[in-house]
């Protein structure tokens, strides 16, 4: 939003409310600045505006004013994972926004493209129930079934043993598993409360939809190296600096960098204020994708499992058959390899892939991990906050800086609600689709330090 645009709106509002005295008072400062040749920043005007609204306490006027276009604003979103993409999507459904999503590597190149894509309405309490509903709405309106493999699933907890034998009479065991090896099987979720998406396709689709509004641009291939701060106020963020030296101004900057959020220095180095970091750490996890034969009778059954590996260690692979004739399997988390500088430098541990391939065939005749069937082997990093709940809110120490990260094992599920919450915060609106109780907890300022 340019300062001129804001000044024009300002004039309009003053005329509209017919507040002659206020008009004079309010116009004085910008006019003065113009006369003496100072460039008035949009941020500066916004702050005066906020003060004015507080001062006159005209909430009705303020609301109407918002509807007239007050929120025209430039937003810079850092990171095109599921969180950055959902934020861009919900933000782009509003008028007078211009959004730039800045992605260092590729859209959904990290965990947002390599996750299971499992959705569980009870995954994270009220918060996940709200996001599960949003996923269902999105799948209906965007044809999620065709575009990103959205489908309802039945979910089981399954324990498999090579030594104990069951008598094969448990009729809840999905028929494509080795019946005699399943020593425990319980239904965890039904098609009402568990579902799945292909996470990469979901992220790409939602970002494409944001772009299609004409309000979102995506800049790929250059990472943000630092934030830019106002020269008058070192706590006021005014844009971002990219690794090719270009700058992008932003009225608001939103960090959606997943595990990299915790490596990103906050604080104006030039003014030697203390540099600090968000409390987000990274853990790695491996996964494989197997192609199954066309006639394999594998249903829409998500499995949370328990099984001993060759060394007698308990493993808990999660198994998600996908509607495109593949099965996704992910394994244990580890911290043996620190997070690299970018997603294209992530290293895999071949032993972790071997373990998954070996375990796969213990569950079913149809889970063949031989070379012909192993279509993907990969690793990626989870973004973890201290309490495993996401950090979503306005940064307590920096003006115009917003954070949405730390979604740990539920980022695909929580992407939509996180995008909606951030949009509410940025536009200063409130939708009844966001449980306020959760929001108060997630945005608590102590959690950002
Ligand atoms: C094995 C595994 C399975 C999972 N399964 C599920 C599941 O079934 N269901 C579920 O809900 N969740 C699941 N998750 C969790 C989910 O994948 C994550 O919580 C989610 O993807 C995090 O999204 P994000 O957008 O915050 O981060 P990311 O996907 O990591 O995206 C961050 C983006 O920021 C970019 N970036 C980083 N630094 C910069 C920079 N300086 N400038 C510009 N861009 C930058 C990166 O390149 C990246 O694209 C799983 C995770 C793992 C590891």
Automatic annotation (TrEMBL):
<dbReference type="Pfam" id="PF01266">
    <property type="entry name" value="DAO"/>
</dbReference>
<dbReference type="GO" id="GO:0005737">
    <property type="term" value="C:cytoplasm"/>
</dbReference>
<dbReference type="InterPro" id="IPR036188">
    <property type="entry name" value="FAD/NAD-bd_sf"/>
</dbReference>
<dbReference type="InterPro" id="IPR006076">
    <property type="entry name" value="FAD-dep_OxRdtase"/>
</dbReference>
<feature type="domain" description="FAD dependent oxidoreductase">
    <location>
        <begin position="77"/>
        <end position="425"/>
    </location>
</feature>
<protein>
    <submittedName>
        <fullName>DAO-domain-containing protein</fullName>
    </submittedName>
</protein>
């Amino acid at each position: 939003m340019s300062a001129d645009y804001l000044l024009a709106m300002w004039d309009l509002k003053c005329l509209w409310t017919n507040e002659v005295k206020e008009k004079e008072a309010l116009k004085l400062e910008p006019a003065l600045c113009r006369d003496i040749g100072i460039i008035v920043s949009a941020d500066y005007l916004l702050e005066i505006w906020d003060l004015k609204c507080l001062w006159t306490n005209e909430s009705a006027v303020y609301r109407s004013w918002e509807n007239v276009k007050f929120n025209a604003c430039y937003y810079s979103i850092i990171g095109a994972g599921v969180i950055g993409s959902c934020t861009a999507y919900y933000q782009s459904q509003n008028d007078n926004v211009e959004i730039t999503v800045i992605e260092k590597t590729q859209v959904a190149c990290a965990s947002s493209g390599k996750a299971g894509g499992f959705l569980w309405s009870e995954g994270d309490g009220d918060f996940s129930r709200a996001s599960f509903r949003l996923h269902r709405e999105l799948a209906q309106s965007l044809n999620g079934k065709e575009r990103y493999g959205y489908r309802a699933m039945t979910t089981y907890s399954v324990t498999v043993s090579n030594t104990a034998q069951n008598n094969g009479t448990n009729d809840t065991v999905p028929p494509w598993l080795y019946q005699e090896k399943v020593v425990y099987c319980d239904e965890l979720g039904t098609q009402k409360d568990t579902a799945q998406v292909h996470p990469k396709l979901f992220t790409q689709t939602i970002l494409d939809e944001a772009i299609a509004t004409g309000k979102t641009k995506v800049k790929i291939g250059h990472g943000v190296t630092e934030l830019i701060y106002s020269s008058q106020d070192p706590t006021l963020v005014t844009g971002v600096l990219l690794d090719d030296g270009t700058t992008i101004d932003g009225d608001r900057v939103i960090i959606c960098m997943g595990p990299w959020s915790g490596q990103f220095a906050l604080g104006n180095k030039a003014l030697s204020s203390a540099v600090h970091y968000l409390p987000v750490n990274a853990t790695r996890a491996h996964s494989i994708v197997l192609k199954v034969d066309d006639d394999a009778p594998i249903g829409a059954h998500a499995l949370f499992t328990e099984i001993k590996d060759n060394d007698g260690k308990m493993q808990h692979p999660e198994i998600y058959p996908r509607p495109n004739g593949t099965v996704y399997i992910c394994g244990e988390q580890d911290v043996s390899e620190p997070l690299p500088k970018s997603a294209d430098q992530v290293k895999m541990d071949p032993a972790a892939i071997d373990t998954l391939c070996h375990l796969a065939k213990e569950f079913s005749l149809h889970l063949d991990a031989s070379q012909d069937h192993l279509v993907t082997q990969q690793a990626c990093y989870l973004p973890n906050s201290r309490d495993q709940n996401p950090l979503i809110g306005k940064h307590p120490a920096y003006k115009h800086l917003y954070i949405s990260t730390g979604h740990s094992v539920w980022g695909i599920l929580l992407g939509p609600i996180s995008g909606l919450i951030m949009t509410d915060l940025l536009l200063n609106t409130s939708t009844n689709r966001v449980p306020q109780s959760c929001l108060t907890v997630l945005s608590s300022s102590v959690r950002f330090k």
